[in-house]
């Protein structure tokens, strides 16, 4: 009987955890869901006091080459995705992202203190908190991940206030919206609306003390929120729908303004 993809990943991570520099390993998403090739990928976070060198990692990988079809090392080097090595295991892209414990703790601290309120090139700093809060612990020698998850289980009130204020101040660029309405310019309108919705959602999640991860499962999240405008998700869809018709842009924008007003009433901003 052959090894399953779960068995292969477990074996590979067991070897990685044997490195003296490694203190913790966690997997994002549903740990029991095994995607089909091309359907999704698997993300693994690896933490240590230091990041093992290219040579140290390669020795481990080469020794276990029967577990994967391909391996590309250093696909990213530093930054929000850490030092990344990508494997193809039974056709499924599996990425190991290495971070130092110190840089992770500093990054999380900066986010919780409100020093990283905005997205950066499509990456949401609070999204990293969401990832770490919900990460599945695979290896945790010094309880680093379990302690971090416990800390992140409480969304700071100060962060909620800062996030709400920052993003609510950016949800309605009246000058650009009015330019789009005047010209009945659907494409430009959607550019302005896209940025506005991004800020709106980040404020809405903050009000509900939920780390904003991304646009994924937006309806599921909004449906679960207690603090939200009436029919919030339905109205967001209507704003988008009417925004696709040059003759309905005014209607779209009026509903957008109402949504913004209703959220401001909730946030008291």
From TrEMBL:
Lineage summary: Bacteria, Bacillati, Bacillota, Clostridia, Eubacteriales
Organism: Inconstantimicrobium mannanitabidum
Protein name as annotated: Uncharacterized protein
């Amino acid at each position: 009987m052959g090894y399953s993809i779960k068995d292969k990943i477990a074996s590979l991570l067991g070897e990685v955890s044997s490195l003296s520099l490694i203190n913790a390993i966690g997997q994002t998403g549903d740990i029991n869901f095994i995607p089909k090739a091309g359907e999704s990928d698997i993300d693994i976070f690896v933490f240590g006091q230091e990041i093992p060198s290219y040579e140290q990692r390669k020795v481990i990988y080469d020794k276990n080459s029967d577990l994967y079809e391909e391996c590309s090392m250093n696909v990213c080097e530093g930054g929000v995705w850490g030092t990344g090595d990508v494997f193809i295991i039974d056709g499924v892209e599996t990425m190991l992202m290495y971070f130092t414990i110190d840089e992770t703790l500093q990054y999380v601290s900066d986010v919780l203190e409100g020093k990283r309120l905005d997205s950066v090139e499509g990456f949401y700093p609070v999204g990293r908190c969401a990832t770490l809060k919900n990460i599945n612990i695979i290896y945790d020698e010094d309880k680093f991940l379990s302690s971090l998850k416990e800390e992140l289980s409480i969304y700071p009130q100060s962060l909620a206030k800062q996030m709400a204020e920052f993003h609510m101040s950016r949800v309605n660029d009246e000058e650009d919206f009015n330019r789009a309405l005047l010209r009945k310019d659907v494409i430009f309108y959607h550019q302005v609306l896209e940025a506005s919705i991004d800020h709106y959602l980040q404020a809405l999640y903050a009000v509900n003390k939920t780390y904003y991860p991304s646009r994924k499962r937006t309806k599921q999240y909004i449906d679960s929120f207690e603090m939200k405008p009436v029919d919030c998700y339905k109205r967001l869809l209507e704003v988008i729908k009417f925004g696709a018709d040059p003759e309905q842009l005014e209607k779209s924008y009026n509903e957008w303004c109402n949504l913004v007003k209703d959220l401001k009433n909730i946030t008291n901003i």
